[in-house]
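COMPLEX REQUEST
Ligand: magnesium ion
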Amino acid sequence: MTEFDFIRKYLQNQQQDHQVVLGIGDDAAIVRPQAGCDLCFSADMLLKKKHFFESITPEDLAWKVLAVNISDMAAMGAKPKWALLSAGLRELDEDWLRRFCNSFFDLAQRFGVTLIGGDTTRGDLVFNVTIIGELPQGQALRRDAAKVGDDIWVSGKIGLAASALNCVLKQCDLPSEIFQQCEAELLRPMPRVALGQAILNVAHAAQDVSDGLAQDIGHILAASNVGAEIWADEVPTLPSLKAVLPREQWLQYTLAGGDDYELVFTAPQNYREALLAAAQKSDTPITRIGKITDTGRLKVVNSVSDGTEIALISLGFDHFG
Ligand code: ADP
Ligand code: MG
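STATUS: Structure written out below.
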């Protein structure tokens, strides 16, 4: 199979999106944004051995490559619309490509994303997705908008993906049932697009949790020039996971593990009811885990009532750290 067979057979025959003026097949794609919308762009790259194991299935790989990008749109409160996929592949194995594409388009369709272009070259399993979304003009959820006194909220459960990864790396032991629940989060994160859009007019700052909760909250603090207090025991977890891991490990994986693709956001205290309603409408559990302070630093304590500060070995993942 040649590069062009692959493009024609697997990439070109997708459902058409009426805003796509020109899709795959020309030198570049053309899209027409809706009036009153800002366009929102992001790219995320995944590399073998850095972001996934070589043994990963093509279905799980395709899912993750796209999901982490959709998650960036969710974090801005944007509706993901169009994606470009650049792939470095060792060979054009038709069975592998069919499985990869089925999973990629399955996820894309769930979120109304159209693949409008990309590039295919020989490489050692490198993937980059560029994603474009739409936002009501001027309403994006930015990192620099947190205010002193805001509550800090997080969606879903945190630390499961990191626990699975550490179990694979033989850093911890998990009973197989718990491992499987955690591994599902690691392999198939579900981006929180509905929540991101539901909190557009309510939340101040937001971002997705990809490199570790503490580090990611730190980005909001730095951009907004504020501090925060986080209550570790309020961070939503899998109770059976928390029960089986030594506390040190649970804290590390939950507060600094990463790969969660949940949303962390800040909002004024008088919006608690509105937020819980928005979360329910988008079918996404959210939990209040702390508050924005004027201290200029992040302080993680055990709980609301036990203010003992927790020192983390690392705040999160850094490729060059
Ligand atoms: P060019 O030579 O201009 O770079 P290509 O021959 O690489 O164009 O690509 C032909 C068409 O196929 C273009 O529309 C390009 O965006 C699309 N395309 C190539 N690879 C991919 C891919 N992996 N995913 C999506 N679209 C792709
Ligand atoms: Mg060209």
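REMARKS: The radius of gyration is 20 Å. The pocket of magnesium ion (ligand 2) is lined by residues 27 (CB under 6 Å).
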